[in-house]
Design brief:
By secondary structure, this protein is an all-alpha fold. The chain has 5 helices and no strands. Helices cover about 80% and strands about 0% of the residues.
Length: about 140
Amino acid sequence: VYFLVSGALLAAGSFLDGLDGSLARLLGSQSNFGAFLDSFTDRISDSLIVLGFLLSGAVDAVLALGMLASSMLVSYARARAEGLGVSLKEVGVGERAVRLLAAIAATFTAYINPLTLFAAAIFITVVSMITVVQRFIATAAALRR
């Protein structure tokens, strides 16, 4: 039951997170602070997802740390590149939406088989690291021009 509730909360939170930026654009109320706040709360959300995976017992501390570090590096690579004037929007196979979908699917199915959390943690870690490499290459190419 806890996995179903967790999955529903994760899905609802992800939906609302995706809606806030669209709503701000629609209403013309975008701001630098809003963009900062969105990114900041996304990192908190990522951390809580990893903590949930760890506390489930299906994921050990080493995998949880790898999952967290690789997810954070995805967002750091984009933020740092954008600070240098390089847009990395939609660069990489493991953007936040992909990672969230994997976490949501695993959480919903974990009550049947808790190993889905382990598999999702590996998937999230691997696609995140691939994305970090893709973003590094794209940034290096753009800055060398």
